[in-house]
Design a protein that fits this description.
By secondary structure, the chain is α+β, with helices and mostly antiparallel strands. It folds into two domains: 41-188, no CATH class; 198-246. It is built from five helices and twelve strands. It has helices at 50-61, 70-73, 144-147, 198-218, 222-246; strands at 2-5, 12-15, 21-23, 30-34, 37-43, 75-93, 96-103, 123-124, 135-136, 153-171, 174-181, 187-188. The strands form two sheets. Strands 3, 4, 5, 6, 7, 8, 9, 10, 11 and 12 form a ten-stranded mixed β-sheet that branches. It has a two-stranded antiparallel sheet with strand order 1-2. A hairpin with a 2-residue loop joins strand 4 (30-34) and strand 5. Helix 4 runs antiparallel to helix 5. It is elongated and about 95 Å long. It starts with a strand and ends with a helix.
Amino acid sequence: MAQVNCPKCAAPMELDAGVKFAKCSYCSSMVFFDRTGAGFYYAIPFTLGQNEAVGTFRRWAGGSTKAKDLDRLANITEIKKKYFPVYLFRREVNGREEVIVEPAGSTILPGLHQLKVPGGDLKVFDDKFDTGGAEMVRPDIEMLHYLDKLPGKGKEQALVYFPIWTIEYTFNGSKYQVVVDASSSEVFASTFPARGSAAYLLVALVGFIIFLVLGFVATVMLVPALVLMALTVVGVFFLSLTVARRM
């Protein structure tokens, strides 16, 4: 049985071989251990329920860069509630504190390299923490994988379980996946059905050509050319509006 010190209160802790998680008997901190030493063990509670996560996804899908009616026509085929593990590193870099977050679990889910841990929402993860039935993704990447690459001097290291909703959906026969951050409501997607730009470019090109021609006309017939330019502006506006509604 190995003996280590609690990273919070420095009290001695006895650790059985192969055990990665233990609770300090003095300060009740939940601590995890790997080959790099000891660190805290936290979780962030869910602030988005399933209905709120779906609503967040629908609002994201209604954005100007998304395919027309994606918010209405996206067919959600699967939604899962998960806790995803990340490593939180507090480092002193050039006299300033920096917080770096890296995945602790292997994943192909989009956005999990961009998660931001809200410091005030960290809760000690122990047997009393209510996971709300969320799937617990187990960490399979050692902290040592990141430590040699981090800048500055270490101040704290922790394993944090991060709340996410994974949503799979189909649109026009294709499958897509997004991750909804259940603490900040941010949505991550590596690919999504995008709104086409060809029609907008065509409208802009037609308008440019017409104005170019009217510019030459204005050199000989100023007033008629100005009237035609005004009519062209109105026509391009309504044509753009039509494209926006139909594309």
